[in-house]
Amino acid sequence: MPIWCCAASAPTETHVVSEVVVIMAEPIRVVVTGAAGQIAYSLLYQIASGAVFGPQQPVFLHLLDIAPMMGVLEGVVMELADCALPLLAGVLPTANPEEAFKDVAAAFLVGAMPRKEGMERKDLLAANVRIFKEQGQALDKVARKDVKVLVVGNPANTNALICSKYAPSIPKENFTAMTRLDQNRAQSQLAAKIGVPVKDVKRVIIWGNHSSTQFPDASNAVAIVGGAQKSVSEIINDDAYLKGAFVTTVQKRGAAVIAARKMSSALSAAKAASDHMRDWFLGTEDRWVSMGVVSDGSYGTPRDVVYSFPVTVTNGKWKIVEGLTISDFARQMLDATGKELVEEKQEALDVCKD
Ligand SMILES: NC(=O)c1ccc[n+]([C@@H]2O[C@H](COP(=O)([O-])OP(=O)(O)OC[C@H]3O[C@@H](n4cnc5c(N)ncnc54)[C@H](O)[C@@H]3O)[C@@H](O)[C@H]2O)c1
Question: Any signal peptide, and if so, which residues (predicted)?
Fold first, then answer.
């Protein structure tokens, strides 16, 4: 019985290699911005090795960074070649957004200006919003209309909103912001507290902004203990922890990594970006995952901001999980992070007018 699989080298041919019939699939074009940066350094390998789009989908990588980083990017291109990855159909390094976004099916928007010493949050937002306005315009002009865009660069939620606003020919559902790192952190904290493998903790939710106002919510979470699924609240039986130390540990985890590593989270951020895009492309079945998506006002959240909700994904389309009970505590948390997003949106729109 022949085995059917795909390879990248000759996209439309079919070869028979002894018992194995190899169908050559068309590669998809995938862009990573900030490609010379530290998150991209981990992320590119994950994409090119098949961890995101599957082991049978070849990829052609477009790598965007700014002109002064082209030398560094050349080194990254050399290393990708040296990995000798069977699914990597080609690499295009560039400093030109229109070249980078041409015909892409997936976009990881990682590149952003880092916060410099003495820089106000407002100044950082202004600098980054301008980048995402320009990239939205370029995506609108040259990307596939079904491109799936994941914004990682901060402030991720508001950058995703601005990017979508300046790409009106692409459905706004196709723009999302990353809160998966926060979800993974929350899941891992609960698994350690309970003493089970991380895969046995499910339905943890990140609501709102990828910032210190985010709400990591364990009230719907379940864990498998001794072969049976139980509510995390019942297992831990410590409301003060779940509303206190658990929430603040997740909110401040990024700062804790910076304090220890002297650099921001990169390995875990790249893994989270891979998780987010893989689930968006390949589906979640009944798993809940948190994604920043354009709010339709669900759960009393402000409309038209990119707000993180629990979603499930089927056939490449996300859907917000419905019917959850929101406690008084959760209400306050959801409202606080929503308020911050409305303020950020207003600041960003003011910048875009200039
Ligand atoms: N959403 C999340 O959970 C999350 C987690 C971690 C980091 N981040 C954010 O991800 C971003 C990248 O982090 P990093 O550690 O890789 O940073 P980094 O500084 O190592 O790399 C950023 C890269 O982006 C490039 N860049 C800057 N402006 C660009 C532009 N206009 N077009 C293309 N490239 C551009 C830089 O030249 C640099 O190579 C930061 O904004 C960081 O705050 C988000």
Answer: none
Question: Is 156 a pocket residue for ligand 1 (Cβ < 6 Å)?
Answer: yes
Residues 216 and 167 occupy one common structural domain: no
pLDDT tens string 16-59:
545 555 545 899 999 999 999 999 999 999 999 999 999 999 99
Does 65 contact ligand 1 (Cβ within 6 A)? yes
Whole-model pTM: value is 0.94
Judge if 151 and 35 occupy the same domain: yes
69 Cβ inside 6 Å of ligand 1 = yes
What separation in Å is there between the alpha carbon of 316 and the centre of ligand 1? 26
Q: Give the structural domain span for 259.
A: 180-349
Q: Which residues are catalytic?
A: 210
Of 254, 292, 2, 321, the closest CA to residue 152 belongs to: 292
Over residues 154-173, the pLDDT tens digits come to: 999 999 999 999 999 999 99
The whole-angstrom separation of Cα 32 and Cα 53 is 14
Q: Does residue 2 fall inside a structural domain?
A: no
Domain count, the chain: 2
Question: Do residues 141 and 63 lie in contact, with contact meaning Cβ atoms separated by under 8 Å?
Answer: no
Residue 82 CA from chain centroid, whole number: 27
Boundary (domain end) residue, out of 142, 177, 212? 177
